[in-house]
Each structure stands twice: as C-alpha cells, then as structure tokens.
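QA checklist item 7 of 12: single-chain prediction sanity check.
[x] sequence parsed
[x] length recorded as 263
[x] structure emitted
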Amino acid sequence: MKPNYKNWVPMGMVIGLTAAAVLVGALLIVFGIVGLGMSGTAHTALTCVLAVAFAACAAFAGWAVMAYCAFSYEGKRQLSKQIVEGTANYVKLPEGGKGLDVGCGSGALTIACAKRNPRAQMVGIDHWGAEYASFSKQLCEQNAAAEDVKNVSFMKGDAVKLDFPDGSFDAVTSNYVYHNITGVDKQALLRETLRVLKKGGSFAIHDLMSPARYGDMRAFVDELRRQGYARVELIDTTDGKFMTRGEARRLMLGGSTLLVGQK
C-alpha cells in the first residue's frame, strides 16, 4: 500500500476550472464569433464579456494544472515532498521526546518528522474542516501505516488555542497552515505554538510570511531573542532552498519563509 498525501490543489478544482474554460469558450464561439441570433452593439458587448471571461477561466485553469503537476507526489517536480522533507530536517527530538505538528492535513510532515526521529513520538493535530474535506484523521493513520511508521498519533485540534499545557513538547512544527486561518493575528498563532514548546526545544514553522499577512517578522524575531530564545532565524525558502523566486511567483507562494530555532 502506498501513502496518499493528496495534492495541495484538489483535482476537483482542476476539473471545475477546466470545464468552466471550455464552457465559456464554447459560448464565445457560438455567440461571439458566429454571432448566433445577435448583431450590432449587443453582439459586440457580449463578445467582449465572453472574451474576458474566457481569458480569466483559461488563466485560472492553466494555473491549476501547473500547480497540480508541481505539487503532485507522483509528478516530476514533487515540490510538496521537497518542502515537507526540507522542513522536517529542522525537527530534532531527543530519545523519548515528543514533537507536535500543527495543521497536519494528510500527515505528511508529521510522518516525515517521525521517520527522522524514530526514538521519539510525533503528534499531528488538525481541525480537518470542510474546506479540506479530502483530509482526515483516518487518512493520516492510513498514510502512517503505509509508511510503516508507528511513532505517530493524530488528533483533532485548534491552532488558535492548543489543548496542551505550556512546555509540553520537545519540538513544534507546521507547514503552510497559518496563512489559511482568517481573522487571527499570525504572530499570535506563532506565540501560541511556541507556548507549548519546552525550554531548549526546537521549532520549524514554514508559511507565507509576507508583511501583509504577518507584519514585521524581523521585529518578532528580535522579540523572541529578548525573551531569551537561544536561537531564532528566518530563512527565505524561495531563493533556491525549496523553490526559485520565479516558481514561487508562478505558484503564488511568495513570502515562503521558515522560522526556525531553539527556545
């Protein structure tokens, strides 16, 4: 049995956008180019509207196909796998230790961290909401079984308010999660994640940390250092570490950054 970590771009989105482009294109041909039953100003206006709509649908469909191929675990690029494994490399757990992956989705990062720390335990939490209906606790457990990884567990949880006491984990991690949580200060989410990290524990949090989403992350790093964190570093992952800047721009992953360090 092979693991199924899913694609960050759902196939349903690809099919829906492609179908929309085909439908609008057909309407453009019938009513715009051929001009079936129409003429004059009305025909010109409708042609313009359909042309713009077709261009938009085609552009979105093209982006969805490109992104689906880039993120696929079965494809040539395998960008998702590269990002997950690259982030997991920063998660170091002591023997008998425990790590937390916030927003585990299909379990990819949780399992990757568990494989790199076989003498420790990883816990993956997620709310598995309707917006990602294909992800579930059952899927995570199936993927762990497929990878023959036993030092993992999964549970429902909320990144805004983690159901763990202060200092519960030897490492915390997350990948492309917090930018999806609306109406919440992103730096507050980081503080909540770091709250459950033990003194001396490591962290690796990867997300779209653009100023528009996260505010001044340099100031945030300085704040952590003043609080006594042993090491804090921001790593731009679009400069060739995980992807190129051009690729990040095309895939709308601009601002991809790793926040790593030790408490």
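[x] summary fact logged: The mean pLDDT is 93.
[ ] second reviewer sign-off
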